[in-house]
Write a structure and sequence with these properties.
By secondary structure, the chain is α/β, with parallel strands linked by helices. It is 41% helix and 19% strand. The chain folds into two domains: 3-15 and 72-219, 3-Layer(aba) Sandwich (Rossmann fold); 18-68, no CATH class. The longest helix has 15 residues, at 205-219.
Length: 233
């Protein structure tokens, strides 16, 4: 039996959304307003991220330091290494921008281990620009990347797919997966409960690891003795 793990990035593998860090640190004019409009459902994820990332106005070195300061869940890197080495492929799917995600994955030695599905992007003249591809089969006009379609594609390659996320845009992926994790006290968990969907709440990748081992044992028993280092990497 083959297994795959799919995870959101911001506020799932990391402990904070990158756009939130930018808003908190630089308070771009108009960011608070578009953030409120986003939560009222008046603007899309792409609208929000595009506005925030297009209004940083900092040099490349400063933005690089901001990206590198984004904290990871202290068990995430170890979990990813364990899953890839002992179980199967690990995918990161994000409505964010590949530019900053790849920088963080490289910092933690994960860039070559995972498959990243995210909106392309680049730095130019003080800002970050997102370039979603409307011709892509997994394109979504609101998020750039349709996470549900990504998981559906992975389901055709693996017998059993896990998904972990935190927010409402993760919902299509969570219900497409065979087993879903949702960060406690966040909108994905609320949405799953409201719609009567099964999921496992998590507070860190340590709890994801423990539950993943249980599920693997139930389905195959092959990985029940694997140990996960608790050392932060």
């Amino acid at each position: 039996m083959t297994f795959a793990f799919v995870s959101d990035f911001d506020n799932t593998i990391t402990l904070k959304d990158f756009y939130t860090l930018i808003i908190e640190k630089y308070s771009p004019p108009g960011a608070a307003d578009i953030y409120e409009r986003f939560h009222r459902g008046e603007v899309s994820v792409l609208d929000l991220l595009g506005f925030v990332f297009n209004n940083i106005h900092k040099d490349r070195f400063t933005i690089m330091q901001d990206i590198l300061s984004l904290p990871l869940d202290s068990y995430a890197a170890d979990f990813i290494r364990w899953f890839v080495n002992e179980v199967g492929p690990f995918y990161i799917v994000s409505a964010g921008c590949s530019y900053y995600i790849e920088i963080l994955l490289e910092k933690y030695g994960l860039l070559g281990l995972v498959t990243l599905v995210a909106n392309p992007g680049y730095y130019h003249d003080g800002n970050i620009y997102i370039l979603p591809n409307p011709n892509d089969d997994i394109y979504s006009p609101s998020t750039g990347v349709d996470k549900g379609k990504v998981v559906e594609g992975i389901n055709r390659q693996a017998d059993f797919t896990f998904f972990a996320g935190d927010s409402e845009p993760d919902y299509p992926a969570a219900i497409a997966a065979d087993f879903a994790f949702a960060r406690e006290n966040n909108s994905l968990a609320e949405l799953m409960r409201r719609n009567g969907k099964k999921f496992s709440p998590y507070s860190s990748f340590r709890s994801i690891y423990e539950k993943t081992r249980e599920v693997l044992f139930e389905h195959s028993g092959a990985h029940s003795k694997v140990k996960l280092s608790t050392r932060y990497i």
